[in-house]
Amino acid sequence: MTISKYTKVAIRAAYASGLLIKRSVGKISNVSYKGRDNIVTNVDRSSEELIIKMILRAFPDHSILSEESSPIDSGSRYRWVIDPIDGTTNFAHAFPFFCVSIALEESGKIILGVVYDPMRDEIFIAGQGRGATLNGKKIKVSRVDKLSNGFLATGFSYGITRKDRNIMHFSKLLVKTQAIRRAGSAALDLCYVACGRFDGFWEMNLHPWDSAAASLIVREAKGVVTKFDGKSYSHYDKNILATNGRIHSQMVKVLS
Ligand code: IPD
């Protein structure tokens, strides 16, 4: 993969914020609530500040959409979509499954995705049409072709109630597959589909910053990403289904 100037800056920002996050595990000084179960920590905010500062230093005229702050709309056709910590609840409990997610849109289309897991020192990178890598090595989705052998992941969005439809999807799929994990970082779950650790992932009510970078990483690793009904997915859609392609229609059947 040719490392473009955008990729270089995204990688630098992901490593710098990842280090800050790793050093802050167990040392959070402030937690506030965006909802009953939806928290933000001082570390989300400092990670975000650092990433935005590094990006705008390199590309002062670009726009920014980031989870914890107001969007910056400069009118540029380039817009960075950032989750400074995807898996904040895990991070707050020192459960080591969270990441930094940085994507670049050109005219609304994702052209670059970088996801960094600072605890495992794993960096997933994809450029549109250039494939996907994990720590510099090309990655590809798994070859499992029967849902009954599938190792899947999902997540439950904040503000869940007993009537949440995903509980129904979860119980249906649980008895049709080998196993399901709910680890708490949509971006990392998607990257795990990309590198073949999971065979599929689905979730409802996601935000653009949760899936922007990692959905490109799955596609570039030859996976398939759609809405639950199999129709084309953009990171502005709420519900995502990402698989190795081979079990996709079997999952669409259950979810749609
Ligand atoms: C959350 C995580 C979680 C998913 C939630 C997301 P955040 O992102 O990705 O796995 O279930 O829907 O909002 O809030 O930790 O950045």
Tell me briefly what this model is.
The protein is 32% helix and 27% strand.
How are the SSEs placed, and which strands pair?
Blueprint: H1 5-24, E1 31-35, E2 38-41, H2 42-58, E3 63-66, E4 78-86, H3 88-92, E5 99-106, E6 109-117, E7 122-127, E8 132-134, E9 137-138, E10 151-154, H4 165-174, E11 179-181, H5 186-194, E12 200-203, H6 208-220, E13 224-226, E14 240-243, H7 248-255
Parallel strand pairs: 3-4, 10-11, 10-12
Antiparallel strand pairs: 1-2, 4-5, 5-6, 6-7, 7-8, 8-9, 12-14, 13-14
Helix pairs in contact: 1-2, 5-6
Bound molecules: D-MYO-inositol-1-phosphate.
D-MYO-inositol-1-phosphate binds next to strand 4.
Describe this structure in words.
The chain folds into 2 domains: 136 residues, Fructose-1,6-Bisphosphatase, subunit A, domain 1 (Fructose-1,6-Bisphosphatase, Chain A, domain 1); 109 residues, D-Maltodextrin-Binding Protein, domain 2. The chain is built from 7 helices and 14 strands. It has a 7-stranded mixed sheet with strand order 3-4-5-6-7-8-9, with helices on both faces. A 5-stranded mixed sheet has the order 11-10-12-14-13, sandwiched between helices. It is globular and about 50 Å long. The relative contact order is 0.14. The mean pLDDT is 96. The site of D-MYO-inositol-1-phosphate (IPD) has 14 residues, from strand 4.
Overview features:
32% helix, binds D-MYO-inositol-1-phosphate, single chain, 256 residues, Fructose-1,6-Bisphosphatase, Chain A, domain 1, five-stranded mixed β-sheet, seven-stranded mixed β-sheet, alpha+beta, D-Maltodextrin-Binding Protein, domain 2
